[in-house]
Amino acid sequence: xxxxxxxxxxxxxxxxxxxxxxxxxxxxxxxxxxxxxxxxxxxxxxxxxxxxxxxxxxxxxxxxxxxxxxxxxxxxxxxxxxxxxxxxxxxxxxxxxxxxxxxxxxxxxxxxxxxxxxxxxxxxxxxxxxxxxxxxxxxxxxxxxxxxxxxxxxxxxxxxxxxxxxxxxxx
Amino acid sequence: xxxxxxxxxxxxxxxxxxxxxxxxxxxxxxxxxxxxxxxxxxxxxxxxxxxxxxxxxxxxxxxxxxxxxxxxxxxxxxxxxxxxxxxxxxxxxxxxxxxxxxxxxxxxxxxxxxxxxxxxxxxxxxxxxxxxxxxxxxxxxxxxxxxxxxxxxxxxxxxxxxxxxxxxxxxxxxxxxxxxxxxxxxxxxxxxxxxxxxxxxxxxxxxxxxxxxxxxxxxxxxxxxxxxxxxxxxxxxxxxxxxxxxxxxxxxxxxxxxxxxxxxxxxxxxxxxxxxxxxxxxxxxxxxxxxxxxxxxxxxxxxxxxxxxxxxxxxxxxxxxxxxxxxxxxxxxxxxxxxxxxxxxxxxxxxxxxxxxxxxxxxxxxxxxxxxxxxxxxxxxxxxxxxxxxxxxxxxxxxxxxxxxxxxxxxxxxxxxxxxxxxxxxxxxxxxxxxxxxxxxxxxxxxxxxxxxxxxxxxxxxxxxxxxxxxxxxxxxxxxxxxxxxxxxxxxxxxxxxxxxxxxxxxxxxxxxxxxxxxxxxxxxxxxxxxxxxxxxxxxxxxxxxxxxxxxxxxxxxxxxxxxxxxxxxxxxxxxxxxxxxxxxxxxxxxxxxxxxxxxxxxxxxxxxxxxxxxxxxxxxxxxxxxxxxxxxxxxxxxxxxxxxxxxxxxxxxxxxxxxxxxxxxxxxxxxxxxxxxxxxxxxxxxxxxxxxxxxxxxxxxxxxxxxxxxxxxxxxxxxxxxxxxxxxxxxxxxxxxxxxxxxxxxxxxxxxxxxxxxxxxxxxxxxxxxxxxxxxxxxxxxxxxxxxxx
Lengths: 171, 791
Hints:
The structure holds two protein chains of two kinds.
Chain A: E1 16-22, E2 25-31, H1 37-44, E3 63-66, E4 69-72, E5 85-87, H2 101-108, H3 118-131, H4 137-143, H5 155-164
Parallel strand pairs in A: 1-5
Antiparallel strand pairs in A: 1-2, 3-4, 3-5
Helix pairs in contact in A: 2-5
Chain B: H1 20-25, E1 40-46, E2 52-58, H2 60-64, E3 68-73, E4 107-108, E5 114-120, H3 123-130, E6 134-139, H4 146-149, E7 164-170, H5 174-183, E8 186-197, E9 206-212, E10 217-222, H6 227-238, E11 245-248, H7 264-276, E12 280-283, H8 286-292, E13 296-307, E14 313-325, H9 335-340, E15 351-360, H10 374-392, H11 396-403, E16 412-413, E17 419-420, H12 425-436, H13 438-451, E18 455-465, H14 473-478, E19 487-493, E20 499-503, H15 512-524, E21 531-534, H16 552-579, E22 586-589, E23 592-595, E24 598-604, H17 605-614, E25 626-632, E26 641-651, E27 657-667, H18 674-693, E28 725-728, H19 746-763, H20 777-790
Parallel strand pairs in B: 1-12, 10-11, 14-15, 20-21, 27-28
Antiparallel strand pairs in B: 1-5, 2-4, 2-6, 3-5, 7-15, 8-13, 9-10, 9-12, 13-14, 16-17, 18-26, 19-20, 19-25, 22-23, 23-24, 26-27
C-alpha cells in the first residue's frame, strides 16, 4: 500500500480508541482513523527515534517491530496496531549504559554515519537475524533490501549484521 | 601509517565514534523530532506547471478550513523580504539572474516553485487546507533541455531577454591550445551528459523557527550544513539584526550538498514566526523534496584532447553548458567552475582551455552535490582518456601511465593556474590493479568474449584528483565568491582538565566529534573521551564557515590543531612560572611539562589547568584560564587523489548492468581515523556508481518530473552493491601541519567514470564507444540491439 501524506482519506473528526503496547508500556489513545502509525509513535507517544525518510514505503527509516516482526510504520495506520505489541529503537537497549548486540555491532563496524536510517536499519536487522540467525552476505543484503542508507554504501552495515550474528568479519 | 613526529599514538587509531550511542538508540534529535508547543505548521502550495503565469489565487476556502491561521501568496508576503533569495557567487560581472523570492509572484518557473502557503495548527490540517487553495494558472511553454534553452527559442524570464546567465572562460593561453591541436597526431572529441541527480540525504529537510517577540530574538532550527552562513543570509534577506539570530542545526541526517543552501522554507518560517510571534515549522515530504531541494550535476560537456603520436597529452579543451534550473540558489552559477580547474585531471598537459556557459531551464535550481563540479570534470577527462587509449591503440592502463604528472613534479603548477600540493599517482594505480586482480579479470573477460557468453565482463579504471580544503579566502575573492574560506576553533581546558573544543564545522555524519577529539587528545596527551566537541549552534560556536567541499578536516581540523598548540603555549608559560624554569627549557609530552635535564621538576597539564583557573599564582599580566581561539585561512587547496577500478557484468540479452567488484585506492594524506576514512569512501563509491548506473531526475518534454519518490528515483539498496576492496597510499599534504587532505567527496569523484568505463569496456566488442548515464537496462539493450542490427 502506498500512503502519500495529504492524500489519505479518513473519517475526520471521528476518533477511534486504540490500545497499543510499546516497549513494554501500554498506551490507550484516541486517534483519527487516517493517522499513520509512525505519526502515532513519534508525535502521540513522543518516541522520535523512529524516523520518516520517505512517503512511498521505500526507505525503511520507520521500521519497528510488531509482535517481533519488522513492519514499516509509515505504511500502517495507527488503528491497525490496536491490541498489538510494538518495539521501537528506544526499547531495544537493555539499559541506559548498555546497547543491544545489534546496536553494539553497528558501532563496532562503523555501520552508521549520519544515523538517520539507523534506527530502522537496526530494527530490520534484528528481525532479519530472528528469522535467519546465520545469514550469508547475500542473505543480509537481500534481507535489508527495503532499507535505504545514503552514507555507508551498505559495506559496513552488512559487516555489522554479520558480526552481530557471531560470524567473523575482516576488520 | 601516520607520521610519529607529528602525532603521538591516538591519531591514526581506528577509534569507534562517540556520536554513535545517541544515534543508535533514538536519543539523537533531528529537526522534526523537536517538540515545540504551540508551533504552527506551514505547508507550501507548489506550481504543478514547469512554466505558468499565476492568474489568480483563491484562498478563501482554505482560510475557512478548521485550524488554519493564515494563507499567504507571493503578493501579500512581498513586504517580508528585505532582499531577494541570496546568491553568494555571481561568477562574472555581466552575469544575469532573474528576480527570486521565496514565494513566486506573477510567474512560476518550475514544478515545485512555491506559489502560496498555508499555516495551520497541525501538520494534517495544513495539508488538508493546502488542497483547498485554488490557483488559476496560464501554462506557458517550458524549456527543459539545456541545449534547447541556450537557443533562446523560448525565453523563460522575459525581463532578462535571454536564457543565458553567464559565460565563464578559463583560457590562459588560447594560442598554445590552438597550436597543440593543429600539431596533434591524435585528437578525440567527446560529448558527455551529466544528468540531473536528486541528492537524497535520508533525512528530509526541516525547519522550526521559534521567536521571542519581546526580546526580538529568533532561533531557527534547521536541517542544514551551514548554520553560520545561514545566519548571515537570514539577517540580510529578512532584515533581522544579525545578533538577534541564533541558528541551530541539531542532528542532521546527511546533506551531500543538498543542505548547503539558503532555502525558501527557512526564510518563510522565520519571517512568519517573527510576524506572528508564534513558532512556525515545516518538514519536507520526500516527494516534495525532489522539487523543493536543489538538484546536482546537470551539464552537457564537450571535451577534446590533443595528443602526440605516443598518446602523450598536449592540450585539453572543454566547453560545457551548465543547467542552472529556473533560478539561482546560493552557489548555483559557481558549482561547475569548481570543476573548471580540473578537466585535465591527473595528467601533465601543456595547454588548457575551459569555458562554461550557465543556462536557465524550467527545472529546480541545481547547486552543490557531493563533489560539486569535480565529479563532472573527472568523469569527462577519465572517459576521454579511455577514448584516447582506443584512438592511440594502447590500453587504458598504459595511456594513464604515459600521462600522469610524475611524483617529482610536485608541487605541480597546473595549466589551469593551480598548484597541486603533493601527489604520487602511479602507486595508487598499481595498488588498485593488484587489489582487484586485474590480470586475472582480463583473462576471464577474454574467455567470456571467446565463448560468446551472455554475461560479458567489463573493467573500468579512473584516476582522479580533487581540489579540497575549501578554500584560501583570497582565491575565493578572485573567483568572485562572496565569502571567505577560513575556519575557526576554540580549545578550552576546564579546571578539571576535561576539554571543550568548539568548531565552526557542522558535521552531519562525518564524525567530527570523534576526529577532532582525537586531534586534541593526541596533542595534549589525554584521553579522547575527556574531550567534548561542540558545534552547529551559532550561540555556542559563533565563528565558522561550516561543512562542504571536503574542507572540514583540512581547514577546520587544522584550526583545532593550531588552537591546541596555542593553548599548550599558554600552559607552558604557566608551568614555567610554577616550576621556576625558562619556557624554552620545558618539554611537553604525554600531558606533562618537564624541565629538560631535571626530570624531577614536572607539572602535569591537570595541575596547570587548575592553576590557570584559580589564578592564584600566574605570571604578571597573564589572563586566567586556559582557552585559545584560532581562525585559520588555508594558504592553498589540498589535492587528494586515487585510483578506482570497477568491474561490471552486462547481460547482453537484457541490458542489465551489475556491479560485481570494486577496488579503490585513495590518498587523502595522513588519516586521523581510518575507520571514518573508509566509511566516507564506501558511501562515496556507491553514490558515484548510482549516478553511473541508476539515478536520474527525469523530466518529460513539458518539464514534468517523472520520478519524485524513492519508489521511482533509484537510490541504490543493499542488493545493488558488492562489498568494496579498499586500499590507501599516504602522501601528506604540505598545505597544513597535519598533512591531511580530506576524503568526503573522493569516492563519488572516482567512481562514476570507473563504472561507465567498465560498461563501455564490456560492450566494446560491439563497437560501442559510449553509454550515457545512467546506464539503464533499456539504454544498454538498445545500444546492443542497434549494434547488432548495424553489424
